[in-house]
Amino acid sequence: MSETYLPQVQPYHPATFLERGVLVPFTTPTLVGTRARPAERVALELVIPNPSGGRGVYILGWAGIGSLCRPTLHDRLLNERIATLRLVTPSAIRRIGREVAAEGLAGEDAMEAAARSEELERQDRLVVNYLLLMALMAQVNQGLPGAADEPRGTAEMEERARLTVASIAPRLGRSTIWLAAALEAIADMIAGVGIGMTGRTSRLSRVMAQIQKSAAAISEWSGRQHSEHQIAYAEMICAVAEFTLGLARTALVHARDLATDMVALLSAWSTDPGAVARVATRPEWLLDGWEQICLLWQFAEDDAQRRAALLEMTGLVPVLPREVRDWAGYFIEADLSIRLRRMIPLNQDWRTGSTVFDLIARNEQILAASC
Q1: pLDDT at 346 > cutoff 50
Q2: Domain ranges across the chain
């Protein structure tokens, strides 16, 4: 019989969001909560929560998950696809996850949800691209005769847009083709954040509302419990959720403010697109992983399932990296999510009572709800 060697459990407090990694929507129970991040020796490595529910994580190369568990066919394909990524970001993982789900390997519900999500995000990108162009037109043409007049048709709107792009591109030392592509790239990056009329309906705004609703439900439920452990788990999850929401609200404001001066935004994009991307994508990095946590609670139908879900959620609460101190101005003496993990008794299995197949089916439902 061959002997399987697993990596050692390691302590875990990442310095940056990139080191923390991006949540991968695996359906295999052992892999739930796994994050992917770039590595030095291999293309990609996986950060897998300790299956016992205790402290620490496993760090594996993407090809090593077979040493830990038997992944579903969906997870094998997803793992192979994400290994080809050059840049590991929440949007990139989300895109690949949706593509794999659309192939039907996680069930029909997930397949249909992936198709709907793709269409919704395409529409969001189009609307945001249009709003960015309108904001640029308003800024560039401000004070010119007739600039405040509403266009009298699509042809006049397109002509105004063409003239605006033609006038601003030379000022940036770029071509009109570059400027149009820049607007599309920026729209793709901030579609989830939303601007103007899309601010309240954007994907990240919906995720934040979901977190707030779930935290309120957990707090209300914990008020009826008698177990000190259950109450403590709930209080800590709610505390991390509220702290993260506060950071995310600030990050959303900063990301949306980018579009208030379109000329400055395009100029910054021309010289250092990475700096723009860091501001625009902070909300997405902050909220990465929270949707799955909320759905675990929402799929729990009775008190027994809620108690089990609460324990599972404690191991999935995202660790806030140290870089939060640099851009948010907060000093995090001891990350709440790390303290939360220390409260979980070792070897306490929150999956007791559920078969692997039951959990896979549940995870597929969660995948469908989060596509």
Answers
A1: no
A2: 120-370
Q: pLDDT value at position 3?
A: 42
If you search the block for the tokens 């004070």, which residue do you land on? 143
Per residue, the 3-state secondary structure of the chain, as one string, reads CCCCCCCCCECCCCCCHHHHCEECCCCCHHHCCCEEEECCCCCEEEEEECCCCCCCEEEEEHHHHHHCCCCCHHHHHHHHHHCCCCCCCHHHHHHHHHHHHCCCCCCHHHHHHHHHHHHHHHHHHHHHHHHHHHHHHHHHCCCCCCCCCCCCCHHHHHHHHHHHHHHHHHHCCCCHHHHHHHHHHHHHHHCCCCCHHHCCCCHHHHHHHHHHHHHHHHHHHHCCCCCHHHHHHHHHHHHHHHHHHHHHHHHHHHHHHHHHCHHHHHHHHHHCHHHHHHHHHHHHHHHCCHHHHHHHHHCCCCHHHHHHHHHHHHCCCCCCCCCHHHHHCCCCCCCHHHHHHHCCCCCCCCCCCCCHHHHHHHHHHHHHHHC
Contacting residues for 206 by C-beta, under 8 A, at least 6 apart? none
Determine contact, residues 69/31, Cβ cutoff 8 Å.
yes
pLDDT band at 1 (very low <50, low <70, confident <90, very high): very low
- Among candidate residues 121, 71, 76, the one with its CA nearest the CA of residue 95: 121
The tens digit of pLDDT for each residue in 203-240 reads 999 999 999 999 999 999 999 999 888 899 999 999 99
pTM of this prediction?
0.88
Per-residue pLDDT tens digits for 3-57: 445 556 555 678 899 999 999 999 999 999 999 999 877 779 999 987 766 667 8
Tens-place pLDDT, residues 229-279: 889 999 999 999 999 999 999 999 999 999 999 999 999 999 999 999 999
- Rounded distance between C-alpha atoms, residue 25 and residue 23, angstroms: 6
